[in-house]
What we know:
Layout: H1 2-14, H2 22-55
Amino acid sequence: MKIFGFFKDVSREMKKVTWPKGPELVSYTITVVATVAFVAVFFFVIDFIIGQGLSSLSFLK
């Protein structure tokens, strides 16, 4: 019976949640996508630089 109490509590708490409105949601989504894209490009550039540096070392060839 504890599982039913758990879901009842979850339902009660979900009614207290303030959900973002449409414009807020779009703004948050753009922020997340831009941040992920920036981090992906950053790590790609760092990986490329390190890869080029390691491939230029003569003892690794």
